[in-house]
Each structure stands twice: as structure tokens, then as C-alpha cells.
Design goal:
Its EC number is 5.3.1.1. The chain is α/β, with parallel strands linked by helices and about 250 residues long. It has twelve helices and eight strands. The longest helix is centred in the last third of the chain and has 18 residues. Bound molecules: phosphoenolpyruvate.
Length: about 250
């Protein structure tokens, strides 16, 4: 089964209206008309429309960094899947470790968001990953398994095939410390095996598993060449078109 690589840029809470549009245009230019990989930009919610307009007609997709799992109603400050779809989003990042740690998102909340994303025809990018403490205690697989089983609870096989998982070891996010290709591949292979048990091996074979954690142009190629690494979720290096382009087209 060949899975198409997905490189997604998570801009987090960065950029302003002008710089977001300029960055999106630069990325679209660098990507070209027929890239060999799928590319997505995930700007802050307030700039999603502007970025979607800036990349309209190009192969660059747009994703949100979060959603609220409810239909329209009295949820002050929140944005739902239908609204994201309405303004041109294709993807939505769910359960990023920053939201888990800072905003107290639980696996149960993420599984509700996942159902809402799928019902709204968005492709969810579900983030999982261990802390340094978990890893040093030998609990990486246990933590990743519990996050995956919790976040994907209630998901059926048919829909499972279309989701994206991002394995993001928390100790590698924004720290400049990347998992080695062996460390990353080991966890990706474990995730694929687990997905095979949770769904079927055929479904697991179709699910794209991205790696995230200090991916840069100089380490992208070796990470992306691993058999179970199907793309990258990129934070810091997605804020410079040149660096992001260097990950999309690694030398
Ligand atoms: C992220 O936040 O998803 C991420 C991987 O960040 P960075 O690339 O900066 O480590």
C-alpha cells in the first residue's frame, strides 16, 4: 500500500494578517502545481479564511488547529466543523500536546472532536506522543496506546482509513531535539500494529502517520524515508517558507 506523504505546517499562535497571507503565497509558490506530496497549512483560526483565499486554486490545503465538537449554539468563543468547512478547511489538528497540557484536553474530548470532524467532512490529524518522563520511565508505548485507544474510541473501520495520526514526542516539540529515525520508526511501527488490532491490518495500512518534533530541512529526508513515516507535522520550521519548502522537497 502506498500512502501519500502529507506535510502540514502548524503555525500555532503566530503570524498577523499580512504575514500569514504572504507566507501562504510563498509556500504555494514553492510547492508548485504538481507536488509529489500533499501539503497543508494550519494558521490561527482568525486567518484561516485569508490563507484559504491565498492558496485557492493551488494544491496547498488548509487546516484548523482545533474545533469544538458541537453544532451551532450557545458556545461563546468556539468554532465548529461546519464553520471550518464553510471557509475552505480540509484538515483539522486534534489533541495537539500543547492543547492537552495547557488547555486540559483529554482523550475523551479528542474523541468527540474526532467524531465532529468526520461528520463535518474534515480530515482529522490526531496527535499523540509521550513526554520525556514517560520515555525515560519506559512508558512510551503504554502512553501512546492509551492516547490512541482513548482518542479513537467509537471510530469505525470505514472512517478510520481516512484519518491521519501525528506521532509527536512532547520532548521533541520546539526543543530542537528530534527523535532519531530509528526512535521515530519504532513508535510509528508500533502505532501501525496497534491500529491493525483496533481496526484491521488493511485499514491500518491506509492510515497516514506523520512524525512531528523539530522537523527541519536537514533531518526531513531521513525521517520521511522510514517505512512507517508518512509525512511530517511541522511547527517552527513551517513559519519560514524556505525551511518549509526544504521539508517538502528535501535535498
Ligand atoms: C508541533 O507543534 O506540532 C511541532 C512539531 O513543532 P516543532 O516542529 O516546532 O517541534
Amino acid at each position: 500500500m502506498s500512502r501519500r506523504t502529507l506535510i502540514a505546517g502548524n503555525w500555532k499562535m503566530n503570524t498577523r494578517a499580512d504575514s500569514a497571507v504572504a507566507l501562504a503565497r510563498e509556500v504555494a509558490k514553492a510547492v508548485g502545481e504538481e507536488p509529489a506530496v500533499d501539503v497543508a497549512l494550519c494558521p490561527p483560526a482568525v486567518y484561516l479564511s485569508a490563507v484559504a483565499d491565498a492558496v485557492a486554486g493551488t494544491p496547498v490545503g488548509v487546516g484548523a488547529q482545533n474545533l469544538y465538537a458541537a453544532q451551532d449554539g450557545a458556545y461563546t468563543g468556539e468554532v465548529n466543523a461546519a464553520m471550518l468547512k464553510d471557509i475552505g478547511c480540509h484538515y483539522v489538528i486534534l489533541g495537539h500536546s500543547e492543547r492537552r497540557a495547557i488547555l486540559g484536553e483529554t482523550d475523551a474530548m479528542i474523541s468527540e472532536k474526532l467524531q465532529a470532524a468526520l461528520a463535518g467532512n474534515l480530515v482529522p490529524i490526531v496527535c499523540v506522543g509521550e513526554t520525556l518522563e514517560d520515555r525515560e520511565a519506559g512508558n512510551t508505548e503504554k502512553v501512546v496506546e492509551s492516547q490512541l485507544r482513548g482518542s479513537l474510541a467509537g471510530l469505525d473501520e470505514v472512517r478510520a482509513a481516512g484519518i491521519v495520526i501525528a506521532y509527536e514526542p512532547v520532548w521533541a516539540i520546539g526543543t530542537g531535539k528530534t527523535a532519531s529515525k530509528e526512535q521515530a520508526e519504532e513508535v510509528h511501527a508500533f502505532i501501525r500494529k496497534l491500529l491493525g488490532e483496533m481496526f484491521t491490518p488493511e485499514v491500518a495500512d491506509q492510515i497516514r502517520i506523520q512524525y512531528g518534533g523539530s522537523v527541519k530541512p536537514n533531518n526531513a529526508k531521513e525521517l520521511l524515508s522510514q517505512p512507517n513515516i508518512d509525512g511530517a507535522l511541522v511547527g517552527g520550521a513551517s513559519l519560514k517558507a524556505e525551511d518549509f519548502a526544504g521539508i517538502i522537497h528535501p535535498a
